[in-house]
Amino acid sequence: MPKPGFYAVRIGRRPGIYMTWAECEAQVKGFPKASYKKFPDRKAAETFAGVCSSDRSIIQNEAINNIEIPRQTSNSYITSEFGPKPSTSMSIEEEFESIPDLIFDSIDRKAKPYYAVHRGAKPGVYRTWTECEKQIKNMGNASYRKFDNEEQALEYVRTGGIVKATRRELKEIIYTNRVVQKRKRNSNDELEYTIENPHEPVVIFTDGASAQNGRKIARAGIGIYWGPNHPLNASKRLPGRQTNNRAEIQAAVYALNQAKQIGARKVKLYTDSQFLIHAITDWIKKWKTNGWKLVNGDPVVNKDDFLELEAVSKGLDVEWIYVKAHARNHGNEEADRLAVAGARLLLEPSNCSTFPKPQLGPETVEPFILTHTSSSNEDMAQLIIPEERVERKTFYAVHKGKNPGVYKTWTECEEQIKDFVKPWFKKFCDENEASDFVKYGKVTKKIKIPDPGPDKFVTVFTDGASSCNGQEQAEAGIGVYWGPGNELNTSMRLPGRQTNNRAEIFAAVHALRQAKQLGIKDLRVFTDSKFVINGITSWIDKWKENNWTSASGKPVVNKEDFMALDSARQGINVDWCYVKGHNNNPGNVEADKLAVAGCKKKVSDTFIIA
Question: Pick the catalytic residue: 46, 336, 504, 561?
Fold first, then answer.
């Protein structure tokens, strides 16, 4: 038999105190965002529900006491009294109906919102719009948002503008996605559905997957999860370029198309892709302003996908929520399972999305909008990985031929080399490079130095990897990432001992030596190795004083490696920055890919710049 107690309903059909679970359940079951709790004593229950004994808004069993609650009118407060019904045979629901709604007006009024400012004069959480407005006024890159919950507002300020789903939220999530099947016009028509309550937000989990991502044999799929056994759950193959980023975007496109089709107005979309959330809520505004160029001048690769997502989002109130991947969350795991299954499907029309592509009008620069997210690190450039080269003009350079020179078509070039003994010619995408080839007969390509940030620092990401680390068959590689499509990007095998720590160190060594050759004086190195940062900024001085012995008296294992790193940093102002590994940071992800690929390459004695 359950212990006696007081059931306090703060948000429900009829807020108040109830003596049985059945009475409490009648007020909260199916009610959006219901708030209730059981207490051993009445006082605690009254505090939680926001009532007191003097209010006498306490319901016990099937009787209702006299209730006197002030009700606010347009100018003043009035007081109304209502007595209990003489009959005691009425059900609790009937007694509720007998009480006018006005006695609950003061309780039902919405709580004061929280205004979170991530980027502004003074980031923080504010309780009034006036205070918030002061922090963002005349701030061109302000980032702020309104919340009903203080915890989410604080999380928004802390995490760079991305709203993260809390563990409690994911544990108690309710899929309010009830749909009603429409009548089919004939037996050949597909099943269609309409949402039961268009005023309630629908909850959707989306995910993208790509087996062998980045390779020609990659297979990508999308997964959309509406809830257990929901008819709208989808597992589809991705047409076009088979990349993970495209799959994440197109999964969201498909989900929002579904939401529009069933008549939904509000969408809570959960995704494990911070790249997707940052891009659609923040970066896309800057890309449009810059003519769809990244900060380093390269074109945005997924332009068409984001334009499609933006077009589909119009007319919907979408709340983008980040959920950590592979963290035993039911919704995310189901979406991932559906995406993986979609990647295994054949690339046929029946296995792909059948939603029509939206008609995209002429591009215009949109004004700044109220709510958006941004990177939590202002120094970190937006790094979107190019997955295909943009079509460029072609130049044919003839060094040895009938008439050496630069030609714009293959037909013109062919006339100069046909029947010519040992012709010397080459195709280029840059006219200056083609002209140099005509003069010198060899490629004289200039390496592009990454653009520095506002503080004059150039950014680079480094990483090391070692498969079977610590074992005899271990294979280690290094990855150095300077930006999308940069020729300085490095993926090479590590010579010598195949350990992860050595790979992390020598990835940084290689980046520093590259910087020296290019004349870079200020370099910001992002690495996910605290061992490297602590070693080169703190421990190395103590090791030198102790004749390269550790605090335990043992020789420093990576002495030669740290000596090489110490030598490489001389003459460069290095800002060492830690970035959490495997956390969807674009630069770190690409450096990791390069390092992993380097593990499989052959050992070369010349892989580190001397």
Answer: 504
